[in-house]
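Entry for L-homoserine complex. Fields follow.
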Amino acid sequence: MKSIKVFAPATVANVSCGFDAMGFALESLGDQMVFTQTEDNGVKISKIEGANLPYDVDKNVVGVVAKQMLEDSNANFGLDIQIFKNFKPGSGLGSSAASASGTAFAVNTLLDNKYNKLELTQFAMQGEVTACGSAIADNVAACLYGGFILVRSYNPLDIVSIPTPGELIATVIHPQIEIKTADSRQVVPETIPVKTAVAQWANVGGLISGLHTKDFNLIGRSLVDYVAEPKRKELIPHFDKVKQSALNSGVLGVGISGSGPTIFALSKGKNIAHKVAKAMDEVYVNSGIGYNIYVSRISNKGVHLV
Ligand code: HSE
């Protein structure tokens, strides 16, 4: 009976212009989980640290994904799972996605890699349905593939890995308020004018091209969101101030991480990324709202064994 430990990174979904279609993984922030095979065929969550999440395996995304995979593969073992969360649900950093993707990866490892990454993404997306009611792929794919990803199509699912310039550094500020993804999705307009759609998809093209050619200015010019940010930013205290002061510090671009409240910025090089962290800190320090700031490279491997 084997026991394995995985690290599942936090992820930034949407990346401004790519609502539900783009994401990237952070290197230095993520959850750890321990999966131990058991002889009886059930799934049990025996420990959860760092967040108030259900132990009921039908309500916790970890249990949902694990049960589904063991059933689908007719596995002849069960699982005992321990979850160590380092960032909170409702942060906009892909907390449920880290749980779901870490589980999909770990169970697959114990099944001798029966499934490919696309199939793992599909299993993990079922965890997202449990967490927020929608089968969203941007966080889970970024977590499983690492680097930048594009969800080119949902039906059939098609995930494209985009090259990540090594000098690209993320700064994220996580205000300690919870925004439920399901609520944050309610404020995104259901329809948009064609003119807005043109501006948005042109920026997605610009961002993908900039990542391929390491054109940092083009990456920065493309980090604009005409679809979700105008409404969602109202849910995030001091969003405009954080954005403006980060832009004044020489950042390439700033936006909402996933469904918020985390705000992300991308910079060329660590020095600017740290200057941006300081600028964000100055906005929040006297706000009365608790917050964490992280400066991280983009993870090029996503979820992995530790
Ligand atoms: N793309 C999703 C959204 C990510 O913005 O709602 C959820 O974290």
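NOTE: The chain has ten helices and eleven strands.
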